[in-house]
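Appendix C reproduces, verbatim, an entry submitted by the partner laboratory led by Prof. M.T., so that reviewers can inspect both the input and the predicted structure.
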Amino acid sequence: MAQKNSVRIPPYHYIHVLDRNSNVTRLEEGPQTFIRQDHEKFVSSDTPLKMATLPPRHYCEISDPIIRGKDGNPTYDQYGAININHGEVEIRFHEDYTEPFPLYPGESMKLKPTPLLVVKENWLSRLKPLEISQRARNRLLLVMNGFSRALLPTTQELKRELSLSLNQESSLNKL
């Protein structure tokens, strides 16, 4: 079946296009009418995909996220392909992605948008990190009371903060 030569990409939609000459897949975002060249191919289909949207107080997990530079833009290799952090999982929060965002070539959504778990006051007794991503090797993210996020520099500081809060909690229980 032959592919279409042009695709109308509506706002907040995107497509992946493979350049067969350089073997590099790129992202094309709407709104635009994209006209395919003879050496290009639509990767998934010629139907535009809808961008991911995160509602307030939600998060999602992205497998094999792209590597971003200091300015927040994607980084590219010497051939023009987007650099991907293979084997990593990135957690994206609504606070960081208020606008809809596309999935770059190679990225996939591991966990659909999910509401944040709200930990009520004095319900927290012990935290144990399951995994620390390479991007946040020496930092842990705590989501408390559903709205505030506190970044603690190391696991030692996390233990110290938790032991202080547990000591305060136990002293309050004695009163």
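The first strand starts at residue 6 and ends at 9. Additional entries are available on request from the coordinating office.
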